[in-house]
Hints:
By secondary structure, the protein is of the alpha/beta class.
Amino acid sequence: MTAPETSHRDADFDLQRAILKAWSLDSWQDVTVLLAVSGGPDSVALLRAMVALKRQSSGRLVVAHFNHQTRGAASDEDERFVTDLSRRLGVRCEVGHPAEGSERARDEQSWRADRYRFLEDVASQMGARYVVTAHTADDQAETILHRILRGTGLGGLTGIPRIRLLGHATLMRPMLGVRREQLLAYLSAREQSYRSDASNDELQFTRNRIRHELLPRLVRDYNPQAVEALLRLGILAHEASDVLQGIVEKLWQQCAATRATGDVEIDCERLRDEPPYLIREVFLRAYRTCQWPMQAMGHAQWKTLEEMVRSTESDPPSITLPGAIHVSREGQRLTLRQMKQRGKKSACSSTDSL
């Protein structure tokens, strides 16, 4: 994670340099890179900058645009804009649409899932080594504030990761150190047009209210540097999380094991005297390893798992957690098992730890 640039209104802002500072050209100059482009200012700026950088490399750029078809003619205009711009810039453009007969979801989580599924599929078809999105420092600050309001732990305060896996590709966000104002100045200096998505102004979405109401008010009435303060919090949380995850990984190797059946077994005797935070992180590690759903897991559920580890009863009552995760304990061995669901296989990989 990188800190944002300090100059927000410089029309001569060097976006190419900012991208290369976050993502060395040596890493991607000889491979295929897939760019997620919606047509909005952030992704259009990313496209323009990456095309300029492409002249220094021998790799291939491909644009990916997903038309959610949620805004009628406006969505189709976005698609035409992206395909026309890609053609003028000499870049191949792949376009995706919702599956025939599928419902048009109206929630951001479903839209996001559709987009990333499309990006993963296109990356696989194109043999792309990287998928690049145009998330900015402002997106990062909004994400951290959103998570604070919902309730989050240290991991949530780290915000949007700069790098993560997406299928066989690596998802990169090289503009997390760039402010949105800088991108607008970059586009203005090049007289580059872009599309405006009216749904980004619809205040029924919490994220939009944070962007248009809460965060501006915090900046105006409480702290002119509120965005920078949130970004610093994210950086500090990221640094602390890295240290703690190293501790959690060692603890996981000592007290946990995943079986070929998909079960996870925890040695309660080894774990019970650890701090509550580390106990909960071990269970988070189990969920991530097995790719079990965590959306419905709140503080109360993680606290219940911690209490089962600490219980002095030899056989406390079994429980079933969201995602059909059955938890039982016999003696000092606690077992988590996802109940069988039609067509679903466990993603856990077997280990010999414990």
